[in-house]
Amino acid sequence: MTDVSPPGTRQPRGRARRASVLEAARRLFSSQGFKGASLVAIAQEAGLTDAGLLYHFPTKNDLLLAVIAEGDREQDETLAQVRDARGLPLLLRMAEFGADLEADPVLTALDVTLSAEHLQTGSEINAYFVRRYDNFRAMLAEALREAAQAGDLRADLDPEVEAANMTAVLDGLRLQWLLSGGGVSMAQGMRAYVHGAIERLSAP
Amino acid sequence: MTDVSPPGTRQPRGRARRASVLEAARRLFSSQGFKGASLVAIAQEAGLTDAGLLYHFPTKNDLLLAVIAEGDREQDETLAQVRDARGLPLLLRMAEFGADLEADPVLTALDVTLSAEHLQTGSEINAYFVRRYDNFRAMLAEALREAAQAGDLRADLDPEVEAANMTAVLDGLRLQWLLSGGGVSMAQGMRAYVHGAIERLSAP
DNA sequence: ATTATCTATAGATCTATAGATAATGC
DNA sequence: ATTATCTATAGATCTATAGATAATGC
């Protein structure tokens, strides 16, 4: 039986190095983009040579996939709090999601940069983002439907449109928050949006 | 007196070539990003060599600035229709802005890509986007204030938050529209948002 | 005469590989 | 013994410049 554990994870030293490379890569991909951050710069930031880095991640694309997988794992922890709820409570929990994102500017900028850099169909990264948005909208649409069914919200709401719009506010606020250096508040905007939407969609 | 007209604009042949370079650059920057699109690729697309291209635009950054200026000019034409109105009518006109953007996918993708690629403070491009968002929000905030003053909307609305959120929905829908290959409709989402917001903010 | 474009190339990256060496675990 | 990292370098770009040539306007 061959050893399937990836290179750089079999010894404590390797695991630590790998983690620091991932962290440096996240920071640089986040601020410079995938194309803008070179392996040399990332390696330097992590304190090893580019060749040393490539022992841990055979190609730059592998590194990017690992950075994304890692970010995904962390975001899933935040999302788990949301998914614990259903219907109206889930939507109310979404009001705090802007504040959640403000807690991790690097991960948030990474997301904005990478999604915009991979709009074109065809790459593994693009497929990842398409899937992630589909899942996110589906989660919200389901909560909206549940809330309508429970009589908390009006029965004739359009779950797909409302889900896309709630996702859109969060994304758009992210961009403005980053561009304005925090001048536009994601937390405040998202709270206002969600509570406004619930008020507007309340059962008559 | 020295001639201040830029190179490539003094003869019809030059002007035509310059225009075709700008168009090719817009397409490639839009689909590959600034870093992703090489001068060689853009020149090839425009039917000349990279050295020929650099006669018209001395550096790649100059080319990007020209592409942005050109896009700005076109978007200003669309925006002019909005700015013609004030107060509630301006907001109602915004409901159609999603449909407007759907009419030019290349320019829309260019905007998404470039803004995400220049989140970092310091570059000329970043300053351009910061300014543009400030202006856009200010325009909406003013319209909201006017509508409140006219008694069309409730007096206690928060113009800054509402302006940022309306901008955010448009931006967020752009991204989902591009990522979903048109599956999420900007036009429909924006109409729903604006009419919903007006309903929610109506004077009691 | 001037404007527009080309050929050729310099110089700076960048990703990735090969092969050697240092550090660690058993 | 195995794992992790380094030095050195190949090969592919990429932006930009210098200098020559072709096309246009007067």
What would the keywords be for this entry?
Arc Repressor Mutant, subunit A; Tetracycline Repressor, domain 2; 204 residues; DNA-binding; 0% strand; 2 domains; homodimer; mainly alpha
Describe what you observe in this structure.
The structure is a homodimer of 204-residue chains. Chain A has 204 residues and is mainly alpha-helical. Chain A contains 10 helices and no strands. The first copy, chain A, has 2 domains: 1-65, Arc Repressor Mutant, subunit A, CATH 1.10.10; 81-201, Orthogonal Bundle (Tetracycline Repressor, domain 2), CATH 1.10.357. The model of chain A has no long low-confidence stretch (mean pLDDT 95). Chain A binds a DNA duplex (26 and 26 nucleotides) through helix 1 and helix 3.
